[in-house]
Amino acid sequence: MNHIRSSRTTGLLAFALAGFTAPCAYGSALAQEAPPPPATAEAVAEPAAETTAEPREIDFEANNLAYDSENEVVTASGNVVLRSEDQSVRAQEVSWNRKSGQITASGDVRFVDQDGNQLYTERLELNDKFETGAMEDLLLALREGGRLAANSGSRGEDGTITLNQAAYSACAVEDSDGCPKKPSWRVTADRVTYDPENRRVRFRGAYLELFGARLLPLPGLALRTDSGAASGFMVPDFRIGQSNGLEVSGSYYWRMADNRDLTLVGTVFTEAPPMVSGTYRHLVDKGAYQITGYLTESRRISSFTGDPTSERDLRGYLAANGKFQFNPEWSVSGSVRLATDRTFLRRYDISNDDRLRSTINVERIDEQSYFSFAGWATQTMRLGQDQGQVPMVLPVVDYRRRLDDPVLGGKVELQLNSLNLFREDGQDTQRAFASARWELRGITGLGQLVSLTALARGDVYHSSDNALTDTVTYRGSPGWQGRGIAVGAVDVKWPLVGEFLGGTQVFTPRVQLVASPPIRNLAVPNEDSRAIDLEDSNLFALNRFPGYDRVEDGVRVTYGFDWEVQRPGWRFKTTLGQSYRFKEASDILVDGTGLSERVSDFVGRTEVRFRDFVKLTHRYRLDKDSLKLRRNEFDATVGSRQTYVEVGYLKLNRDIDEFVEDLQDREELRAAARVRFADYWSVFGSGVFNLTDRTEDPTFNSDGFEAVRTRLGVAYEDDCLELGLTWRRDYVTSGDAERGDTFQLYFNLRNLGFR
């Protein structure tokens, strides 16, 4: 029988193998499945028992049907569809030899296996179990993404498909208009084996081609068709830095089991000894954890003198975290972060963190109660800071419970809390308290939202070595100390809704009265309430100090308003407020906080948003007397995800002459921008600049404009490829992490497991 080869299928195969270019006329055949044709003939047949040990039913439909009774050959033509269990075949013509059980399909053949993978070819041989044989000019579209095209191939009885002179890519073959596009990368190979049982594709003689250029061999390449990970080598990373010179990292990924894996990395440098690292991840029945480690041997910088050590030391970093949920209520989580020295992470560009915290937390949570047994330890990464002054905490016990039945119509929450904080060379503090909080909310007949709050708490403290704390107001009195706390508050909001400029507006005046008798604040240490500053976020808080160690006393009234306007696409929201104390502030509210006098500074926040294109946020604090800006913080984003500009600015002008811990003046500018062009290309840049000068902070040597870090780069990103080159300059030397330039080349081949 003679067959006319379809230009549609042949064109697709040619496009897949010879550079992925094709006319627009047959671009959509791979991406979309044609609807089933109308059936004009239908038959149900069962193959002869002698042709197979396990007969199976095969349904087929076609426009025309013929039967050769002498040779027992059924021939179907015209939009033929065969179905057997989860498999199907579509073709222009199908002949079925009932004696031998052989099925031959020809003309625009599409075979779908039980896993949903689609095979396109011109001629396909199957037996009555739907097991295929030899094929030519074929294209295999994997269900999980990716396509394999080959000059020839065969399918064994176990379903294994072997392809010769094949090409693979996970890129989309169509653009948004339905026309074919040339994928940015593909893998060519002499031989490809597809194992449907293990859902794995193995390549022999494979090469990676990027934008049509053959780049590098990929020996031993294998990938999974179910989006799962497969063991193998990963694409190297390249970087050039000031501290280490040229850096090349090679990785091997080991898929140990479906629930655990290991990634091993070896890195060589031209200006430093080599380094090894690895990450182990494990998913268990009750939770998951991962462990990452780095190890090398090199000279390092002394934490205190800043000079290089004379001999090489073992240097490294350990990071681990995990969480285990034993039942719906009980869980355990924790993390470990440790470094051998303070400059290792910055030297090898792993992290810029100035402290590393290790934690442990046992929790029980149900609808009415919360229990936590926690602890943490911190390792400082700051040069010159005494590690002995850095606190460790174990344990912190916190228990809270809501009462089921209301008390006087309000909700009651009980709390028990204790803390043990100790330092190697500093003050030690132990604390315990018990508290009860009652809260009642309601709406008046005029629409006011009224909240009544009452808090009672009793504290017990013990501290020693108090003189080792530099700031006197943080020390407290040594030995055992106790105090009682009582706070009452009334909070009233009155939302007023109306029309405005074609939209809606909500104007909400608010007033709050808080009263508390004198509290023995300075008698107890201050460990967790040091960073106090009046902001819009804590203006109406019951206690404007963070933590538990400091509580505002006296009587104060806070007043302000919220105003929100919404129009189609637009949203404007602003908040402004101030507080007044009936007595002079206590010693715990020092100058520079905005709360030290009877009348506080003004604080506010304004947000403007236009769809997802413009986002503006301004936070500020105004001096109550001169209206001078004491805090000026501005964040703006204009643009889309592809093209945008971001600007952030912060200035703290506290107007104090003396040095107070946690109240230094600062001025900083942050900026970033990205511009997309030519569909997939973009250029980007960012920078952080210190604008603080000596008049704002005498400890700074800056002249008022000092770059901290800048970055420039160019990137390419489409549906299956990320490629970029970045240049970064660090302007601050920290130990052996030298200031200078860093260049990095990276790329990520999606759906191939390279990242």
TrEMBL record:
Which residue ranges does the record annotate as region Disordered? Answer: 33-53
Tell me where in this chain the LptD C-terminal domain is found.
Answer: 315-681
Q: Which UniProt keywords apply?
A: Cell outer membrane, Membrane, Signal
Q: Which GO biological process categories is it annotated with? A: Gram-negative-bacterium-type cell outer membrane assembly; lipopolysaccharide transport
Residues annotated as signal peptide:
1-31
State where composition is biased (Low complexity).
40-52
> Quaternary structure per UniProt?
Component of the lipopolysaccharide transport and assembly complex.
Function text = Involved in the assembly of lipopolysaccharide (LPS) at the surface of the outer membrane.
**Record's family?**
Belongs to the LptD family.
Q: What is this protein called?
A: LPS-assembly protein LptD
